[in-house]
TrEMBL record:
Classification of source organism: Bacteria, Bacillati, Bacillota, Clostridia, Lutisporales
Name by which UniProt lists this protein: Stage 0 sporulation protein A homolog
Organism of this sequence: Lutispora saccharofermentans
Domain HTH LytTR-type: 136-236
Domain Response regulatory: 4-120
Residues bearing PTM 4-aspartylphosphate: D57
Pfam families: LytTR, Response_reg
Amino acid sequence: MPINIFLCDDDLVQLETLTSFIHSIFSKGEIAITQATSGEELLSKIDAVKPDTVILDIEMKGLNGIQTGFILREKFKDLIIVFITGFKDYAFDAFSVKSFDYIIKPVTFSQFKMLMDDITIRLDQIRAYKEKSQALVIASRDKSAAIRYDDIFYFEKSLRKVRIYTKCGIYEYYGTFKELMNNLNMDFFVQCHQGYIVNISKIKEIRKDELILNGIKPSISMSRKYKSNVREAMSCRLFS
């Protein structure tokens, strides 16, 4: 999935400058940009798309950037908030919002590129933590288990059962892939075949009609129908 970056500034020139910087740094499909010219407009747009990063000015009419930042922090505990402002006097307030960075205008491209590099690293750390901490809970008549995403290599459909291949062995339970995908966070997995769903982070290599996974053999079949989905998931994984 692309990185969702929200830009908020009542200066349209600044908005377009930052937008052009982002397009110069990232390739098409790696990012999605949402613009807003006020705190109120920004907050109205976060219900439709969850932001990964918000870059906002401080001095704006209505809700200022600090007030907007506090509201955002209440909603999204791990959100990366960056203030880009022409004033130095709000640094303490920005710290109270637990902002990722505080930059004084004017912002150069090289300065902004360094910021986005740091943000990309931080997003990768957040994603890795979430993957390690998230778990799939399965239950059967005899027992139940919570399996961490980080321990899962892939899922295999076997008649009316789903088999889970993990670092700790193989689990199986009665169910369908449709039910499974409703219960999984599919940011971390991708279907590569009618009978297989793989952990994106375990994919080592994509070949013509198979996937090579880290830490397990043999290879996993990949059908033409799902090949583009796998490539897209792998690409997004590198920039998330």
